[in-house]
Amino acid sequence: MTRFLPHVTVACVIPRNDQFLLVRELIDGEEKLNQPAGHLEADESLAQAAIRETLEETGWDITLTGIVGVDLYKAPANGETYVRTTFIGNPVQHHPELALDDGIIGPVWLTREQIAEAYNKLRSPMVLNVIDDYLAGRRFGLEVVAVDR
Q1: Fewer Cβ in 10 A, N or C end of the chain?
Q2: Please, which residues have CB within 8 angstroms of residue 69's CB and are 6 or more apart in sequence?
Q3: Per residue in 19-32, pLDDT tens?
Q4: pTM exceeding the 0.85 threshold for the entire prediction
Q5: pLDDT band at 148, cuts 50/70/90?
Q6: Measured between alpha carbons, how far is 86 from 10 in angstroms, rounded to an integer?
């Protein structure tokens, strides 16, 4: 019997004025757009992972202010299942001198409309879905997850 092992991931919706911070990245030679996102590492909290991934992929320090939600996604490309906690963050300081993760082209600020227009370039439908959830007011306090345990 095969054991079911979903991937635990985090992402951040980071608004600034009427734009959102996204990451331009190369996936199998194609440019894709995604929220700053990645896998949980050993011995870190979900919140720590979200802050780390955002810095590694965008060069931005952020503070977390809430959570949009937790989503389950089965990727059609590889059949893998992901459990993704999406945080809300405020941009604090940009460090353009930082080297970004491999495969990352760089950060970009886009409006919701620009993101929708680029739908075919989104890494997954979750990119636009969580922005729409955020804009619809779906927000929970950080206390719904253990932030620093």
Answers
A1: N
A2: 85, 86, 130, 133, 138, 140
A3: 999 999 998 899 99
A4: yes
A5: low
A6: 6
Going along the chain from its start, the domains and CATH numbers come out as: 7-144 (3.90.79.10)
Distance CA 82, CA 100 (A): 23
Is residue 49 over pLDDT 80? yes
Three-state DSSP state, 91: strand
To which residue do tokens 């439908």 refer? 125
Which pair of tokens denotes residue 33?
């757009």
Q: What angle do CA 113, 62, 73 make, to 5 degrees?
A: 55
DSSP secondary structure letters along 27-73? ETTEEEEE-SEEEPPTT--HHHHHHHHHHHHHSEEEEEEEEEEEEEE
- 48 φ/ψ angles, rounded to the nearest 5 degrees: -60, -40
